Amino acid sequence: MKPDGRVGILISGRGSNMEAIVRAAEERRIPGVVAVVISNLPEAPGLKKAQEHGIETLALEPRSASKSENYDRRIVAALEERRVDLVCLAGYMRILTAVFLKAYGGRILNIHPSLLPAFPGLEVQRKALEYGVRYSGATVHFVDAEVDTGPIVLQAVVPVESDDTPATLAARILAEEHRIYPESVRLFLEGRLQIEGRRVRILPAPG
């Protein structure tokens, strides 16, 4: 990947992982810039956070709550207009359609608050506690046609304490999300992630 790659981030809420990537770019911990932050919800708090960092924001409301190829075409057009190299989903609460995957296949990352393939989907910490796992964590993965099933880039392990609630477990996992998501973005922009079937090979740093 060329130096100073351009990242587009999609959000639906507070955007804490978005802000972690933005700060990493500002501090030159990743070789790139955040070109745009897009939300499907105009009231998403993360939009204001992005604006405070001087980043362009777009609120593109879908015309339907269902999967929409027309909506994804609008998103893709906005990303391509801004010459985005990598798309990061950061709490984006829509399932991408084939239109999006065709345009950016192999160039979309997502963060999920569990050790995938365990506990995909929603209410992850509640599921982990009910199942009685000793460890949970966070996963950065490439996005494919299914939900939370794409090839895994990085994971971080978080012990589950006996007195944990979904909220306390989520807070500890979130701290790890903020660490491994920018690191995954860095590896991608450095051209060091190679997808081989279900596996992602991390190539050594040049030199």
Give the rounded overall mean pLDDT. 95
Overall structural class, as computed from helix and strand content, comes to alpha/beta
Low-pLDDT parts are none
Task: Please provide the count of β strands.
Answer: 9
* Number of domain modules: 1
As for the CATH topology, it is: Rossmann fold
- Written as H for each helix and E for each strand, in order along the chain, the element string is EHEHEHEHEHEEHEE
Largest beta sheet, briefly? 7 strands, mixed
Main β-sheet, spatial strand arrangement: 3-2-1-4-5-6-7
- β-strand amount: 25-35%
**CATH homologous superfamily placement:** Formyl transferase, N-terminal domain
Give your account of this protein's structure:
This protein is α/β, with parallel strands linked by helices. It has a single domain, classed as Rossmann fold (3-Layer(aba) Sandwich), CATH 3.40.50.170. The chain contains 6 helices and 9 strands; from the N terminus they run E-H-E-H-E-H-E-H-E-H-E-E-H-E-E. Strands 3-2-1-4-5-6-7 form a 7-stranded mixed β-sheet, with helices on one face. A two-stranded antiparallel sheet has the order 8-9. Helix 1 packs parallel to helix 6 and helix 5 crosses helix 6. The longest helix has 24 residues. The two termini are 16 Å apart.
Topology:
Elements (H helix, E strand, L loop, with lengths): L4 E7 L4 H11 L5 E8 L5 H8 L4 E3 L9 H13 L4 E5 L7 H7 L3 E5 L11 H8 L3 E8 L9 E8 L6 H24 L3 E4 L2 E4 L5
Parallel strand pairs: 1-2, 1-4, 2-3, 4-5
Antiparallel strand pairs: 5-6, 6-7, 8-9
